[in-house]
């Protein structure tokens, strides 16, 4: 099985389409397919902050749910948007406000459609994706070796939010431990969530959130080649959003 894991898109539809073309995918009506049957996997956080989250929702829904030519795992922003669509009392901030603004500008019929698409996509998604044939696990914020196979609340929090300490930085971002330093498992863990200027490979893990929405790059990790493929972002560069280890 040949896989292309795509990092956090965050509403950057133009960069996503460019990356899919660069990876060799071809447009086929409302989806993209690869002539050599490669499978794209979205690592979560497909919405928020970027210019066109609803277009990304529609494309990912068509590829994953409608035509079943791709896979998807949710991220923390996906979880928050899902809870918003459920009608929960959610703080519309930290990027969600951009998606909500797009959504509220739609006519009611289109709102119903996009809400259904996203909720179906989210509800049918696994918490994380274990691909034994590719010796790989795709999890939005990563996963500890001892958590593999589990889906309890503790694991769910880790997969969506990372190894959080409970403390926060001055700007409100949660302080997270560097779990990848202590990973010594055999399966590759491919994840995103924490923006880095370059893909970070350590101990059979690779962080491919290269901060497209913050003006850097949108990145894919190809298996079994273990190859990195990126396109440049079209968004303004915001240096303080990137973590250096």
From TrEMBL:
GO cellular component terms attached to this protein's record: cytoplasm
CDD domains reported for this sequence: MPP_Prp_like
Entry-linked InterPro entries: Ap4A_hydrolase (IPR050126), Calcineurin-like_PHP (IPR004843), Metallo-depent_PP-like (IPR029052), MPP_PrpE-like (IPR041780), Ser/Thr-sp_prot-phosphatase (IPR006186)
Stored Pfam families: Metallophos
GO molecular function (one): phosphatase activity
Calcineurin-like phosphoesterase domain span: 1-196
Record protein name field: Calcineurin-like phosphoesterase domain-containing protein
Organism: Virgibacillus necropolis
């Amino acid at each position: 099985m040949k896989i292309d894991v795509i990092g956090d898109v965050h509403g950057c539809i133009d960069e996503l389409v460019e990356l899919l073309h660069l990876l060799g995918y071809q447009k086929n009506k409302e989806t993209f397919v690869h002539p050599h049957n490669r499978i794209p996997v979205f690592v979560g956080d497909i919405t928020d902050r970027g210019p066109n989250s609803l277009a990304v929702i529609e494309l990912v829904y068509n590829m994953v749910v409608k035509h079943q030519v791709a896979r998807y795992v949710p991220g923390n922003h996906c979880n928050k948007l899902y809870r918003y669509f459920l009608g929960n009392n959610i703080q519309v901030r930290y990027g969600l406000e951009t998606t909500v603004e797009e959504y509220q500008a739609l006519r009611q019929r289109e709102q119903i459609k996009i809400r259904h698409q996203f909720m179906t996509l989210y509800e049918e998604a696994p918490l994380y994706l274990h691909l034994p044939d590719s010796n790989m696990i795709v999890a939005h914020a990563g996963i500890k070796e001892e958590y593999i196979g589990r889906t309890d609340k503790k694991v769910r929090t880790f997969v969506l939010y990372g190894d959080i300490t409970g403390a926060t930085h001055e700007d409100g971002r949660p302080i997270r431990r560097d779990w990848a330093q202590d990973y010594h498992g055999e399966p590759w863990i491919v994840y995103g969530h924490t923006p880095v200027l370059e893909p970070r490979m350590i101990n059979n893990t690779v962080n491919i959130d290269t901060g497209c929405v913050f003006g850097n790059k949108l990145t894919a990790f190809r298996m079994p080649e273990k190859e990195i493929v990126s396109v440049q972002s079209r968004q303004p560069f915001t240096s303080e959003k990137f973590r250096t280890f």
